[in-house]
Amino acid sequence: MTDRIGYRIAEPPGWVRLVADVPDPVEVRTLAKRIASAADPRVRAKVETFVYDQLFGALTEASARGGTDMFLSTELIDGVPLQMTIVVGVAPLSEFGKATNQTDAMLAYVARTRGAKATEVGGSLAVRSSVDVAAIEGTEDAARAFDTRRVSYVIAAPTDDKRLLIVSSSIRREKGDLESSMLEAMEFLFDAMVATIRFQPVGVSA
Known about the structure:
Helix content: 25-40%
Structural class: alpha+beta
Strand order of the largest sheet: 2-3-6-10-9-8-7
Low-confidence stretches: none
Oligomer: single chain
Distance between the termini: 22 Å
CATH class: Alpha Beta
CATH topology: Protein Transport Mog1p, Chain A
Number of helices: 4
CATH architecture: 3-Layer(aba) Sandwich
Strand content: 25-35%
Order of helices and strands: EEHHEEEEHEEEEHE
Shape: globular
């Protein structure tokens, strides 16, 4: 299991938090069953299996990239799930060139990331970036199967001066005015959730 950075975040109604660094098959199966319960009984078992495979695959990929937690909505909008996932993870200073402290690491991130802007999260220095990523045709990587907008926050957690907290959202992009409005709404929701982050030692309850 990844050595975590302690934090808390407000989850909107209908959102769930899943452990990503050591995915729990029982937890994932329970969620898949819950999501599939809205499906036609004739195909419910297939839907459950599909959802389970997608969720477990996404968690495995998130873990491989340093993710510790994944957040997603289980509520349907007009019968369709909200096309956004959020992954929280940690990154050592060594991932940011020759940085020896959080400030240098964040400056290195700004230098290599187009459109990155300084901000504040939970009273700590942070950098926000946003980029549209094109899908890769035929890929088996679920994160690259669709056009997405990736919004990320790199945060200097006050409880750990050797690493940074990374909070990233992947929002599916579609074409058309309605989809554009939904994209903006989901990006706004993500920013609002990040704004609720507060830091605390690992194991301490809010």
